[in-house]
## 1
Amino acid sequence: MSSITPISPRGFARVGAHSHIKGLGLDEDLKAKLAADGMVGQTEAREAAGIIVNMIKAGKMAGRAVLLAGPPGTGKTAIAIAIARELGRDVPFITLTGSEIYSSELKKTEVLMQAVRKAIGVRLHETRKVYEGELTQFEVRTAKHAYNPYQQVPESARITLTTKSESRSFNVGSSIVAAMLNQGIRIGDVVQIDAETGKVIRAGRSEEVAEKYEIAGYDEKPVPRPSGPVEKEKEFIYVVTLHDLDQIQSQSRGGFFSLLFGGGEVREIDPEIRRRVDEYVKQRVEDGTAEIIPGVFFLDDVSMLDIEAFSFLSTVLESELAPIVIFATNRGITTVRGTDLQAPHGMPLDLLDRLLIINTRLYTEEEIMEILKIRAREEDVNIMDDALNHLTKIGVETSLRYAVQLLSPAAEKAKSEKRNTVTKDDIEVVRKLFSDVKRSVEYVKQYEEYMLR
Ligand SMILES: Nc1ncnc2c1ncn2[C@@H]1O[C@H](COP(=O)(O)OP(=O)(O)OP(=O)(O)O)[C@@H](O)[C@H]1O
Ligand SMILES: [Mg+2]
């Protein structure tokens, strides 16, 4: 495990329906502002979420779990996303929907285990020998291409790196030259070259040249010419997740096939590999060269999980390396899958016992209107006042989610008639074209007999 490449810990963030959510919208003393960061109303739940964020940041939440419970469309997923935004970039945040654990390729517990390990970050400190300086000479020598004599390819180069105190020249080979040319590195850039691997990193444009010859602030912020010697030990910090480390570890032993197919996404990971990764990380933590960053594992629509998945999660919460788990559900009393027991939120009682529960409540008409306004702005939709009023009524009668979803088809309708503002008629047309869940269920019920035949 000597070479570790930086991998972004961000898996994927679900945007789209929640793209307007920028945070929880709280002030310093954790009081919710009525509307801020794209959030409207739902103040108690947001304030509770704010406390959770602080506990996570203080490292007091690892191994604990939170449940967001409330009716459909009351912002449970939105609040979870807001928590992720508040935590910042380095804290991993992984989202999984209950039904996603039933994949055809992986066992349920493997899907969960991978998600759990993606939700635990490790900050690794690596000291490496590098050559660093402003590039003051860059002479590329070219040679004829081995197979195509008409083409010239870079073969080597003579470069000079300059710091505030010295200048040193080097001959570099074709792979370093190629890496430099690919990144568009030119004289006047500050670069770092890893002494062992030859990896080239461009730090930016040197202030020296930027001030003399270029318009300041033209496209990027210049960086100072480095001080000290050209050859130095430098500390690099990478944030990876336990899952990244599992993958690196299992690829290095993947044998012939992984060589042939370039590894790719590893399917099932051997528990032995995980055990070794854990040991490696613990060792580095003891040596003071790594820190663990417990992240968040958000499990939406938790009533889709079955008893096996729940007992797996209970074990995870008790283990030494555990993320913070946030569940969400819109179910009240329902059957725990895989059993015939009824339980609150369809979760086994032993798990329920250790949860902090946050309830979301139904929105008032004004709040729905406010959220629809924000969504209209987010989706670049102009909407007439009476159309907005009508859409708000629809939101009250059916669900906020449905009303939000009608916005873009309504805008499409307006566009098809060469108008750029949505009218009440547009809303009415798309309301008829697209059914809400209740109407759809009633309709299908009516014809169930026919459909079943
Ligand atoms: N308080 C709020 N402020 C701003 N936007 C919100 C708020 N609550 C919900 N929304 C937005 O309304 C839509 C519906 O909310 P969301 O999907 O979060 O509901 P949910 O409680 O997760 O519903 P379900 O139980 O069906 O999963 C989303 O687009 C969401 O971003
Ligand atoms: Mg949801």
## 2
Amino acid sequence: MTVLQMRRSLICPKCKKTLYYEIDDNSAMKSGGLIPITIIHGYPDAHALVVYVDTNGANRGYEVIENLVDLRSNFDAREILNIIGEKKIAKIIASIVGGLTLYIEGDPESIKLLHIFLSKILKNQFFSLADNEKLADIKISIIKKKNNPKVPGEKYILSLLRKGRKMSESGYVNMLNVEISKLKTKIRKVIDVLERRNISKTELMEELEINDREFELIIQFIKTKRPNLIKNLVDSLLDIL
Ligand SMILES: [Zn+2]
């Protein structure tokens, strides 16, 4: 199945920053109406812009949510990890990194905490959460003791979340921000190459300077969101010999 990604932009009326978001054909078809996409951004003054797009991808309205700022100074990232659960948060981040449209089930207070966490560690990166379960590729519950589906890359993200136990709050937040943005960039680069041409694993790894472990991880993400691109990964003579 081919998923056409539509990349759109708009200017946030609060901070005047240009925000980018992507919607795909699938989401548009599933909803049959307006699709709300939440973009959390702005640091340290985090706020959310909810954009309503129609099935053609046209922007039909928006609203700004500012109450994300109120609570953030009272919680540090690791406190929120303990409250919500690091495995649940690892699944959510892995979904965001993999470009999945995510629906989160939870009570309003927990969702607010999650927003604070995400706005800390994903600063200056854009991501979108569907506000409607029908539009989502994956549904993750942050309600205690609920089981969630497996998400590609969640183990790697979990290892990152556990890595900085002894760091300061700002060191920890920065480490996560840098590692997640590096991973997203590498996924984007691999997708760019695979969209343009056939290439072997060896050539791809050399060209983009990625190691075996990163390669396996990136392929997991691509298999989930863009499975049709995997066929462009071909055996080279070197691989066969
Ligand atoms: Zn803004």
